[in-house]
């Protein structure tokens, strides 16, 4: 019987290089993971260059590629996708930024780039939304709180460029920078001027806000300046439903990933207790995915914790997180009518504490796949699989073919 649904499980940054802390094994090869191994055994495996060989992907560009949206066309910066992730509806042409609440002293020095990791900044963001006036520039803006000290800013107006620098000095103890046009076009000059005015006015509002007076009184750093970065222009994304004829949902703790999902028209599914970290509610994510599959054709679940361990260089933690994730994936063994794809978006080797271009393992499980001889889901075993080495853009079309929804090219 041909399956009719597709589930993508993206294990963020799960693949690695040989780790000295694990006797030269990768965390994935060292982990106990009976569920992933069984899926690999019953499915077809391979390795994948998410974007292209030798290209180190960000999570954002990688997910765009996995969803079939060429990042070289669609990606201008992280900002617009973060805006989508905080619930701002971005129209094509709008300029988006990711922001931090930070602390600046009376004499203009940044003393804490995360404002003491303040959380619940909704009231501050509302005060900025109501108080800042950019009408002189003929520009509308939306400012929204994100998780913790994070926020996002979207600008809408004629003639705005997106190639502007950040005001974030990237370290404490120095003054914030001026936002500058990168290319000296009138559009970039206008956006830079708008940003500097936004930062000036919002800081004035924040300095006087009761929440910040309270924080000062209680010995906490006030959130009295907004640092902005990651400028980008929202592109026109052909809706996922139209592109593939599939309805879909996205499940992730990372606003960047849900933002990408929203941008292409996937419905974001909230799940209680998901953190994007070691303590995330992974069983909750998987049950939400199974629930969604009852009335959607496509679901993407992103599980982030292994990437975090990779960035921290903690190989044993990464191995243990993979085992914990594997246990939570057990319900995948009995999904009817579904092509299950498991992969990473990029490698995050513990030895380099950042993303690398090393290809990632991938497996496809479900009716119609040509089962190969691979019996384990890891970087080495998958390299011998029947999918061989593919690129990220080929993954969704391959799954679409298995549900008989690939377009026929030619007669
Ligand atoms: Zn990632
Ligand atoms: Zn990462």
Describe it for me?
By secondary structure, this protein is α/β, with parallel strands linked by helices. The radius of gyration is 22 Å and the shape is globular. It contains 15 helices and 13 strands. It folds into two domains: about 5-75 and about 235-400, 3-Layer(aba) Sandwich (Alkaline Phosphatase, subunit A), CATH 3.40.720; about 85-235, no CATH class. It has helices spanning about 25-30, 35-40, 60-65, 70-75, 80-85, 120-130, 185-210, 210-215, 240-245, 255-265, 280-295, 305-310, 315-330, 380, 395-400, and strands spanning about 5-10, 45-50, 95-105, 110, 140-145, 150-155, 225-235, 250, 265-270, 300-305, 340-345, 360-365, 390. The longest helix has 23 residues, at about 185-210.
Question: Which key phrases capture this entry?
Answer:
globular, 15 helices, Alkaline Phosphatase, subunit A, 18% strand, eight-stranded mixed β-sheet, 411 residues, binds zinc ion, alpha/beta
Report the helical percentage: 25-40%
CATH class group of the largest domain: Alpha Beta
Beta-strand content: 15-25%
Structural category is alpha/beta
> Average pLDDT across residues?
96
Cofactors and ligands present?
A: zinc ion
- Write down the overall geometry: globular
Number of strands: 13
The largest pleated sheet is described as: 8 strands, mixed
Which runs of at least 5 residues are low in confidence (pLDDT < 50)? none
**Going by CATH, what is the homologous superfamily of the largest domain?**
Alkaline Phosphatase, subunit A
Find the CATH topology of the largest domain: Alkaline Phosphatase, subunit A
């Amino acid at each position: 019987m041909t399956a009719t649904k597709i589930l993508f499980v993206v294990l963020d940054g799960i693949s690695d290089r040989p780790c000295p802390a694990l006797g030269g094994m990768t965390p994935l090869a060292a982990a106990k993971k009976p569920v992933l191994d069984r899926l690999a055994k019953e499915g077809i495996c391979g390795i994948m260059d998410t974007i292209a060989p030798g290209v180190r992907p960000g999570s954002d560009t990688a997910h765009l590629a996995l969803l079939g949206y060429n990042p070289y066309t669609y990606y201008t910066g992280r900002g617009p996708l973060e805006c989508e992730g905080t619930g701002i509806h971005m129209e094509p042409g709008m300029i988006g930024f990711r922001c931090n609440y930070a602390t600046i002293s009376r004499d203009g020095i940044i003393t804490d780039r995360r404002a003491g990791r303040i959380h619940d900044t909704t009231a501050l963001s509302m005060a900025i939304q109501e108080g800042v006036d950019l009408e002189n520039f003929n520009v509308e803006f939306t400012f929204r709180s994100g998780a913790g000290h994070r926020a996002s800013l979207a600008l809408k107006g004629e003639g705005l460029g997106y190639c502007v620098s950040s005001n974030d000095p990237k370290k404490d103890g120095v003054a914030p920078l001026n936002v500058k046009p990168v290319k000296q076009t009138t559009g970039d000059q206008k956006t830079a001027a708008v940003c500097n005015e936004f930062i000036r006015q919002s800081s004035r509002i924040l300095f006087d806000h009761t929440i910040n007076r309270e924080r000062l009184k209680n010995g906490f750093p006030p959130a009295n300046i907004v640092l902005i970065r990651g400028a980008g222009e929202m592109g026109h994304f052909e809706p996922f439903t139209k592109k593939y004829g599939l309805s879909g949902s996205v499940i992730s703790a990372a606003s960047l990933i849900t933002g990408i999902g929203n941008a292409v028209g996937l419905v974001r599914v909230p799940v209680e207790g998901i953190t994007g970290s070691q303590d995330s509610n992974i069983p909750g994510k998987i049950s939400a995915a199974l629930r969604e599959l009852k009335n959607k054709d496509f679901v993407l679940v992103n599980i982030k914790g292994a990437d975090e361990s990779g960035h921290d260089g903690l190989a044993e933690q990464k191995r243990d997180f993979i085992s914990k994730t594997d246990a939570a994936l057990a319900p995948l063994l009995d999904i009817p009518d579904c092509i299950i794809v498991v992969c990473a978006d990029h490698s995050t080797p513990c030895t380099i504490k950042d993303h690398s271009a090393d290809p990632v393992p991938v497996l496809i499980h479900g009716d119609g796949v040509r089962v190969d001889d691979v019996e384990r889901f890891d970087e080495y075993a998958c390299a011998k699989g029947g999918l061989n080495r593919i690129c990220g853009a080929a993954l969704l079309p391959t799954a679409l073919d298995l549900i008989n929804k690939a377009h026929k090219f030619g007669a």
